């Protein structure tokens, strides 16, 4: 019996040392996605075909503000054509964005992604403006991050 006590004590000490060496996981709370700023189209697909070089997308800009407003410069076929307000379905993990154009009653909602590509934050919108036979996918990049 005496020979078991030192072994149990040694095992307990060893377990305590091993357990104390484990790194503690630190959880950082997810921050709300910040889309405020000026964005431009860097890629455009219509029905899966790249049309980026077929249309001048260089002048189009959409500006999102921190007070949930947006403005459009040089409109193109897009989710909306007039300035207004916007809302994300979830500030931390957005999957949909809803636009409410000034002077119109019905909001327009579309799928939305917010990936980081080559170290830059992008936004991608999928939508059908008017004709359901045409589906667009725009990838936007912040003009001055």
From TrEMBL:
Q: Which domain of life is it from?
A: Bacteria
One Pfam family, short name please? DUF5004
Q: What is this protein called?
A: DUF5004 domain-containing protein
Q: Give the species this sequence originates from.
A: Chitinophaga barathri
- Organism classification: Bacteria, Pseudomonadati, Bacteroidota, Chitinophagia, Chitinophagales
